[in-house]
UniProtKB/TrEMBL annotation:
Organism: Trametes coccinea (strain BRFM310) (Pycnoporus coccineus)
Pfam family, any one: Exo_endo_phos
The name this protein goes by in its record: DNase I-like protein
PANTHER family membership: REVERSE TRANSCRIPTASES
Domain Endonuclease/exonuclease/phosphatase: 10-239
InterPro entries given in the database record: Endo/exonu/phosph_ase_sf, Endo/exonuclease/phosphatase
Sample GO molecular function, one term: catalytic activity
Coiled coil ranges: none
Amino acid sequence: MLQKTEIRVASLNINGFGTLARDHPENKWGRIYRLMCEHRVGVLMLQETHLTKERVYELHRIFADRIRIYHSEHGSNPTQKEGVAFVINKRIMSSKGAVLTEVVPGRAIQLALPWRGGETRHLLCVYAPTSEGASERRAFFTNLKQRYAESAGLVKPHLMGGDFNMTEDPIDRYPPAERSIDASAEAFDELKASLNMMLVDGWRKTHPTDKEYTFHRGSGDRAMMSRLDRIYVRPSMLRWMRGWKIERTGIRTDHSMVSVMMTTPTAPVTGKGRPTFPMHLLKSKPLAKRMKARGLAAAEEIQRIRSAGRTDTSNAQWVLQRLKRDWLEMARKAEKGATTRLVNEIQEREREVKNMGMNVDTPPEDLIKATESLGKLRGQRLQDKQAGSRLRHMVDGESPTKYWVRLHREVKPRELIPCLEKEGVILRSGEHEYETDPRRMADLAKAHFDGVQRDGPEVTTGDLREQDIAEVIGAIEMSLTGDQQTEMGEELSYDEAEKALKHAKNGTAPGLDGIQYEVWKTMHARFVEDARFEERSKFDVLAVITEAFVDVQRHGVAEGLSFTDGWICPIYKEKGELSNIANYRPITLLNTDYKLMTKALALRI
């Protein structure tokens, strides 16, 4: 199934900078980064940040260029008042080419951000006044509208989000306000109309009757809740937005995070990718038990084939293929079910809060308690993840491991190819024609790389070609002896397969089957361990692999199998047009069992 590539855009009032002291409850930025990674937030709009240039510099240093912060601070007292910021998660979104415009210092900033698909999106982050009440907000909204009207180079935003410190609908406030309509609402409506965002409060349009709040303060009879934090979009963009959410974050703030998945009409379309075996589950004892049982069944099937005879659909190759498929399915099911007690509790509390919000008869006090409890659970989860990350860093952070390399490598988002030029196709205008459908783009790439292997018109043919080949072969002085030729033609042995597995490199990307070398090595290590105890059942994965290799040598690759198929990944050469497939070098990922077979043959030489 194909879908548009999307970026989650979110907004959160963090109630001040906090501290950068490790494990301190007011250390907000460590949790902000963890929050962005866990929720896959590409762009986070922050309010009440109290940021300064020095603080931003320190944050960039701490997070090793994994985030990019654009901010605007209060003019006279930046560490105590106001402040707005954009935070780009560079794992998801590139900050290259981003341009910040300070609309109202400390209150409103706009970021022009290149989006996937070649378009630029203009995002406006707003923190409306609250200290002086509705009159100051009214003046702020009017001033903001005038700034856009008077600045010719200031593009109207596609999206506006932030803490507006007022509500537009009585349903968005508890207890109900004395005035049903905020005094600054008219000025706010005029601002939205001038920005082409009238009527499109995305969350409310998607959930017209639900009660959910983004601001919580007090408890019992003194409890206050309201939906102050919102995201607005142009009406024409609403169809390209989905997944509107209000979520407690676990960060020390009385606001919830609001977010939406955002895409564009020209954003590339992608599939789900290929599944791979979740490596962290190799140590799972329940999964190991199921994989062993499935392996024993495969070994028994091979014994039956030996007795009954081989067929095109019943042979060792198909046994190995089905074993790999079932192992991958087992692992993926185990991964979905491998949630901790805390995660299960969070999910249950999220469902409870959502159901309360949808029920008009829910007492507000119950909703407040459930929401506060959810926030505490999320805070505990973020704290646990931070502790786990620190432990990992203590173990691997100071030695030349893959973790260390990844830690110090520049973080870049996964770049997609938005379109490919159709080779040899020119429009009447003289321009090249481009393909944007991913399946047809894959066909174009395949045709190009296949064509690279074909002989050009300058290559000789017929008898002259045979003569050239014979001449080249005759110039080769090294040759195999008769015994060596016999040895190379022999069937692969168990020991050769074991030697190839021993020399296989860990951390190598798998092929289309999603099975890594580590899976084969782990299963073989378990067999070696079980072999020490007579009473244990034993599954020898290498025996199954060797049987499949021998079957390939005797009969060739069975029809319908993808044993030798490769998955081509085009890598940009860093020069030339991105839309020209000739500017990419193909990296082919092969199945690890096929690479084991070729490695075993290569070790004979």
